[in-house]
Amino acid sequence: PVFTTPHLIHHVQPNIKLILLLREPAERLYSHYYHLGYGSSPEDFEVDVSASIRYLDRCRAKSSLRSCLYNRTLFKEMPTPLFASFYDVHMANWLEVFPRNQIFIMRTEDFDKSKKKYLLQLFKFLNVGDVEERVLDRMSNLAHKYKSVRKDKAGPMLNHTRRTLRDYLREPMKRLASLLHDEKYTWDDIYIGN
């Protein structure tokens, strides 16, 4: 597409400050899969991931990755929302329209470990000013609002599927890390020991 969501937002609100929370792509896909009601088991997910990779690879043999990720027909045919895990392509679209200093980016895994630290950084980014320690403590200790009952019922992703996705998404994650000038967006620290 010539115009994407970033273009529309920029047209209405060019000075907006954007906040982006990125989750490890394979785990994001697994949660998204159950959230949208695609399947009911880790085995279903593995079959659907393999099919989605085949669909996407077939498209990529003829078109650019970006073109494939925005292909409405492919979007409807794929049995998983794999397209959303290509953070590099989507981030490039946003950075074509908005300067990097208007986008606050953090990883879910980092935020979950150090909520107070990232909230302070976020408040600074938003020019909120000082926040009382007790308010910050309360915010840091809030429980997750959304819980995926379907995902919890299904259980964890199969290790084989996780490895398949990590391998398949390795290059896009490297491109994202390069785009953001930050190696943590390869999620290699998460993968060590897994």
Query: How many helical elements?
Result: 12
Broad CATH class: Alpha Beta
Cα end-to-end separation: 38 Å
Instruction: Give start-end ranges of low-pLDDT stretches.
Output: none
Give the CATH superfamily. P-loop containing nucleotide triphosphate hydrolases
- Count the beta strands: 2
Oligomer: single chain
The CATH topology is what?
Answer: Rossmann fold
Class of secondary structure makeup: mainly alpha
- The mean pLDDT is 94
Amount of helix: 55-70%
Largest sheet: 2 strands, parallel
Using only CA atoms, what is the Rg? 18 Å
Strand order of the largest sheet: 1-2
Question: What is the N-to-C succession of helices and strands?
Answer: HEHHHHHEHHHHHH
Task: Quickly count the domains.
Answer: 1
CATH architecture verdict? 3-Layer(aba) Sandwich
Provide a compact summary of the structure.
With 194 residues, this protein is mostly helical. Helices cover 60% and strands 5% of the residues. It has one domain: P-loop containing nucleotide triphosphate hydrolases (Rossmann fold), CATH 3.40.50.
Outline the structure in words.
The structure is a single chain. By secondary structure, the chain is mainly alpha-helical. It has one domain (5-108, 155-191): P-loop containing nucleotide triphosphate hydrolases (Rossmann fold). Helix content is 60%, strand content 5%. It has helices spanning 5-12, 25-35, 42-60, 65-69, 72-77, 87-97, 108-113, 115-125, 133-140, 149-154, 159-180, 188-191, and strands spanning 18-22, 103-107. Strands 1-2 form a two-stranded parallel ribbon. Helix 3 packs across helix 11 (159-180) and helix 8 (115-125) packs across helix 9 (133-140). The termini are far apart. The mean pLDDT is 94.
